[in-house]
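Dear U.,

Please find below the material for section 3 of the report. The protein was modelled together with flavin mononucleotide; I have listed the sequence and SMILES used, followed by the predicted complex structure.
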Amino acid sequence: MTRAQRLPLRSPVLATPLQVGPVRLDTNLLLAPIAGWCDLAWRMTCRELGGVGLACTDLLSPRGLLCGSEASLDLARTNEFDRPIGMQLYGSDPALLADGARWCADHGATVVDLNMGCPVDKVCKKDGGSKLMCDPARAVRIAQAVRTALPDAIPLTAKMRLGWSEADFERGAACSLAVRLARVGVAMITVHGRTTEQMFKGECRREGIRRVVEAVAEATGPYTATPRGGIPVVGNGDVRTPDDAISMLRHTGCAGVMIGRGAFAMPWVFRLAWREQLRLRGLPLSLEGEPTEPEKIEIVRRYFDRMLEFRGEQYAMHKIRQKIAWLGKTINGSHCRELKDGVRQAATPREVHRALDHWLAVAPASERAVPPVPA
Ligand SMILES: Cc1cc2nc3c(=O)[nH]c(=O)nc-3n(C[C@H](O)[C@H](O)[C@H](O)COP(=O)(O)O)c2cc1C
């Protein structure tokens, strides 16, 4: 057993905004990058509801950004409301990633993140994503090159898994990589509590995240939520409710929580999770609770309208048809199926609006009430 493993569980820092290098966030909750979901429209939707301390773009190809490919520029699109924003780069070439990071710095990034966790073949075959966990020396060279390329005001962060394989997990691959990255100036590490071989299935192992928290604290000093002291580790994986977020903080001692799929049906989960932390600490509740059902309809409407504005009709129609099953999951009552079918079958944006208006017109008052917030 290493010294890190013998350290006592650190007490969780509830309701303490994260400090990422020189950047102070409003909360300790992060919206996860999810390719195909986390575009500008989705980030704005989640941010507007409150509680999101930091949101991140999906994977960006540095080559795509540098040669101005339309797909990459769409993914990197941001605006003044979309702050603070992490831009996430993937790849395996230190010089190219450094150039990509400079591009991000010049185009609004608050933070630049390196992807070391993607399990997808297309990314790993080119030695990027979680393949970097198999070549820690290269991962460190990349971090060094990117850190050097960025101005001091822009922190560099990394997102990883517990390793590629079970054997990596056992030998603490994520602990040693996280410590090496911290030593070359990475200002925050996010850990998804699975290995690459697990993909997105099986148990998310908080024990593994806790080990990374302890190893990083031992190497860099305890995290103090100030620009001095150790760097924060963020826990990620299967957080769907405020209680899940609290238990991630408690069981791992992590400084913040990243939520991805949990926001698909509840983009307001961040404000609920922040509110719960404030409540547990006896602090004033600065954010609202669960939205009413008509408010949820308006959330879908604004999300759809933003996709239309930023990406055009074809994209918005395709995405809303795909996502209405998730977005409708928490909408009460007898007319929910009608709403989902109406959106799925809509041929034009007008028909999407009509399906939303129809719900508002026909839903009985009893279904408009705010559902009870779980105790
Ligand atoms: C469809 C899909 C796409 C993803 N795309 C990215 C990505 O672009 N970058 C990244 O770092 N992680 C990506 N992830 C991983 C998530 O950020 C997160 O680590 C994982 O889903 C576990 O967290 P969750 O249970 O809160 O969703 C993706 C996950 C899924 C399911």
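For the text of the report, you could mention the following: The first helix runs from residue 3 to 6.

Regards,
Y.
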